[in-house]
Here is the input.
Amino acid sequence: MKTLYLECSMGAAGDMLMASLYELLSEEQRKDFLDMMNALGLPGVEVAPVAVRTGGIAGTHMKVTVRGREEHEHDHSHEHHGHAHEHHHATPGHIGEIIDGLSLPREVREKARAVYDIIARAEAQAHGCEVGDVHYHEVGALDAVADVVGVCYAVRLLNPGLICASPVHVGSGTVRCAHGVMPVPTPATAALLTGVPAYGGEVRGELCTPTGAALLKTFVRSFGPMPVMVTEKVGYGVGTREFEQANCVRAFLGECREEAGGEIVELVCNIDDMSPEALAFACARLLEEGALDVYTTPGTMKKGRPGHVLTVLCEPGREGELVRQIFAHTATNGLRVRRCGKYFLTSDMRQVQTQWGPVRVKLARGYGVIHAKPEFEDAAALAREHGLPYQTVFEAAMRQIKTM
Here is the structure.
């Protein structure tokens, strides 16, 4: 299975993650990436890769300028990290409108919005305000939007079947902002890294930024040592600050042969006092927070009340975080935990070409069988674009699968 492993031994920031992924792209994909990033529709924003060195290592710094000026995330990630220049402020709703208006594939826009949603929630939690009251500096916001969108688009181009990462080095000490001196990690970053293995160290400074933490939380399936994988490419995304050691995120792309067995955790509870809409919202949120699967089955509860049994599947390392999310988003006061063995087919993603355009295909192999299924959203998008029934595009994709 194509695997992307992110080494965050010097933390993570949006521009560092974007640059490390950019280095993994083919020459054709790099041109596509830069053409897309510089035609997004973000006013005054330009994105350019710069070859740099850090600690004797050659890498790339992704220079994002707004009207000719390069900003740094620790200066602008939230209004409380203000600087001396006056800017208009942007709210999460405004950022969402900006992202919706960008010239990007729909799934990239959706991922970018998801990243900003969790940043806004973390900032609101950290500063004790409503999500809608969070403010970003406009120049800083546009810079950070480019970082987030760039990572989301690069991941789509690379199309890994699995993304995993090391524990995250957050740095140590304090950082000065408009509020005064704040501890590292900042409250927003600490909130974003809930459930993620992280550590401090001797390096003084803010190594992991809110945008970096939010991107990791959105894309990374598991955190731990680098898996056994045959590496094809290594990308080095270099940060703007200089330390005694190399300041970069390393991204490894290669093939990982996943074992066909392992463990999974089932979190189960009975729900009989939530509306269907509220329960559906809770299920969607649990999936966004990293659950592998979430489903409900109807049941009859105490005193003959109709209800549902909610089942949430997750990796063993995500159990604590998902338990907290279940209590936060449902009305249950208790749940059951089952640790189960599992067998599974190894998954991969390929692409087939139909007469109307490309369609990604989900593949699963093992135990002498192969399962293949066209990606629904790709087939549906082509059907809408060309005024065709969904089944027509689906069947065309299936015919191409049989020739693979």
